[in-house]
Amino acid sequence: MTEQCFVDQIADKNILLHVTNVCGECYSDLAEGEHIYYDMQNYRYLCWQCKDRLASKMNDQCEVTEEIKLF
Question: What's the pTM?
Answer without folding.
Answer: 0.84
